[in-house]
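Is pyridoxal-5'-phosphate placement plausible here? Inputs below.
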Amino acid sequence: MTNIDWSKLGFGYSDTNCHIRYTWKDGAWDNGELVKEPFINLHIGAACLHYGQEAFEGMKAFRCKDGKVRIFRPMENANRMFRTAKRACMAPVPPEMFVDAVKRVVRANEEFVPPYGTGGSLYIRPLLIGSGIQIGVAPAKEYTFIVLVMPVGAYYKGGLKPVRAIIYDEFDRAAPLGTGDIKIGGNYAASLYAHEKAKAAGYPVELYLDSKSHTYVEEFATSNFLGIKKDGTYVTPDSTSVLPSVTNLTLKQIAADSGRKVEVRPIPFTELDEFVEIAACGTAVVVTPVYEITRGDKVITLGDSESCGPVVQELYEKVQAIQYGEVPDIHGWCEEI
Ligand SMILES: *Cc1c(COP(=O)(O)O)cnc(C)c1O
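Reply from A.M.:
I modeled the complex. Tokens:
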């Protein structure tokens, strides 16, 4: 048993019983094994270290109201990692193997899933790396697939806290036909500089416009953009360089289920003034309300720093109620381990 103080958990790494690890060699994956030590013995010539063959995912398992542990929409992450692997010329993980790996490692670490009512969850981090030696530029001939897990606390301990966002015209995240739509570590290396600069200036999130024309809204550095119009319509950008977020997919469905209009279309920067609520969305936080957006000397104000808008609040509560098994899972999103 663990003696974790669940109320003090933040979002960060902590050791658990084990991770699960698979190797792809000579055209096939092995059966995977649970490994206790949180280290890998990697060759210095491994492709991931030189040419960035690294893909990852992020998802969560929840201790539900009925005491059971359920994973939220794992097949969506499995399919996304499959697409990422194809685009980065890596051995793809078959989606069934991915979901099985996730279930095996969560089962082996069940006591690390925070109890129902604490607001916590078990964060699941699948990782795919080119582990074969590759000095000439080419895809690796060997791959390692790892799934690690860690208990994380409720992101917002005192309710949703709105933040300020900034747009930097001097930095782009992803090229129009580049790798913005796949989940590789390289996208993060490319955006860390702007992220640190934003943080130091007092902006927890930065918003990117399309790299080609800086005319349309794309997404935040690590989360999708969603906006609510006066009539309650949910609008989110349509772009080839936005990462298809599972949280956004979920919120769009929940919005539609409650009778809202949902629009996926280009959003000009000039339209931001017309939104009554804006939020960033992603697995780690679900939603982060944004109350102010700065671009150069223009400041767009959406609300105040104290209170989350009613629609974003409602969407947040609805998705959490499904994840913790408090309401019927009508879409079959939660998978028991
Ligand atoms: C992972 C990620 C998101 C959020 O995706 P979820 O599936 O909702 O967690 C959004 N944008 C980027 C760039 C990401 O890497």
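Short version: Residues 58, 183, 219, 222-224, 243, 245-248, 282-283 surround pyridoxal-5'-phosphate (CB under 6 Å).
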